[in-house]
């Protein structure tokens, strides 16, 4: 059986070609016919390249419906059809400088030119909808979309509504088909989406979709109301030549009244083409409309004729695409947002630019170190270049989702641009913004007196994994907070009582009626009973996520018991904090004095005199599997802040807190505290923990006097030693499995 150099079998190649044909046909239909692309341009290009590579390796397997022979998609049945007098072709793609050099080499080779001058035009590749305009006797008689390249959709009535498209021409050939791109500017796109949202209509993902959807309206008056524009850059059938070169033909179209792109340039070498590509890429964000590459065309039209066409692409032109998911734009401002844990998060406000098919106007800047050009350890990033307001920055979408800034062009930095001064006070409430030792983030110390933290905490409180109150989402929380109806979580449960006319007030608000008001208050009452783990998670405490909340609930089993344990552990948490600070200072002193730091002695000194009950409570808290010192300190700190603690106590007093799901009580490990150490060979640590908890055991991460059983696998170290010192029963994995083998597990909870 034939195989290519990568080892693909003929059978596998045939199957993959069939799969690619189906995927690309669907992508073409979504993009060209439905104006609703389902994959990015980069993903589409990658599939096309893969298809071409397989066909090159197995030419006899090329399908009759090969994507290589297709342009666009079949026109929609909603419009009448128009056959193009000359096919509307697509362009081949170049992705690297080497691809461009190969294109010029292949053109010279085909024409038999070695050192003779050879000029190319280079112009921005507009990201819009292709359109062909037919003029007869100087009058516009029809307009058609690309369709499948041979037959397009009749959108003549809609095209007549576009200001950039002349109804009549003076001095044009008797028959002239002008081709170009319908597009929408960034500003017009933003305004259109705002109007659509205000009217409750459909909003668009990007300007290309908006332009395509607007041109392909069955009602031309809708198209007239949409801010469409048109760039002319080519032609189809003509009764007389426009000019003898591409550049002069474009200039002729401009003289006839069409908008032509001012960045079109004549280049006399590959180096000049690439230089213009770089220049256009740098200007991309400031153009005010979307482009996704640069198109190169042989300038001499006679040479274009000699070069001719492949099945779907001309030999005399190629599109040099921009790198996927990257774009340059201007950083207009740096704003600071405050989250529910008080974190001050810098956000870049950008001149809007399309990245990966999405218009991006904001990007994360992580923290003050990232802005300054260093990582959390002080090492340089971006070669130490800081980020300043007014900078020209490169944007990418991490994981195709979160926009981030990758680089800064220092050469384009405005004169007088000052380094960004990260605030040391909260921009929302004026409280000190403190950066703790070892933390990359600066945090507001205001707690619930900070409106930003209060609103974000309230949003988190009603989120799906927390209280999940039907009818009370983020939007309603924001409005109720602004109106002064709720300031802290407990206020939600007094909403109706505090306003004797609460129902009356709510039902008369915009967007509310008597039924929706009744439903909301009923939903609030329904949540007065809440599982312990959901209550802990709903508090929105730093470092305490869903898993940690569940671990805490299972360990303590009761709200009052957990709160009492946290209070007892408070002095130990303070010792731990002081110990960590002292260790940092000791390391600095030791480094300056050229000696080894006394870590153990420094830590012991910080813990001297601590009450035994506080130490035991701390060891019990930090010993919970999954709850380390970092989580414990955050938990204790939140409960020791007077304002926050008072809010928590008020809330808890209004609720019935349900214990964790019932644990098995008839298993040999029910109620016992177990610790796993070393390597488990017959199950993962997560499986072992889940199994033990299902059987009613408590799983701890450290050995203490409260530990009942230590399960030690190969590599067990200090925990095994401590267990021996304390007389804790120690068994191996096989003995553990034998112990629990016949033990029934508790039914899973839907908590």
Describe this structure in words.
39% of the residues lie in helices and 18% in strands. The protein is built from 27 helices and 24 strands. Residues 1-6, 72-77 and 744-751 have low confidence and may be disordered. The chain folds into 6 domains: 10-70, Orthogonal Bundle (Helix Hairpins), CATH 1.10.287.610; 93-321, 2-Layer Sandwich (D-amino Acid Aminotransferase, Chain A, domain 1); 326-370 and 381-434, OB fold (Dihydrolipoamide Acetyltransferase, E2P); 446-527, 5' to 3' exonuclease, C-terminal subdomain (DNA polymerase, domain 1, Orthogonal Bundle); 536-658, no CATH class; 673-740, BRCT domain (Rossmann fold, 3-Layer(aba) Sandwich), CATH 3.40.50.10190. Strands 2-11-10-3-9 form a 5-stranded mixed β-sheet.
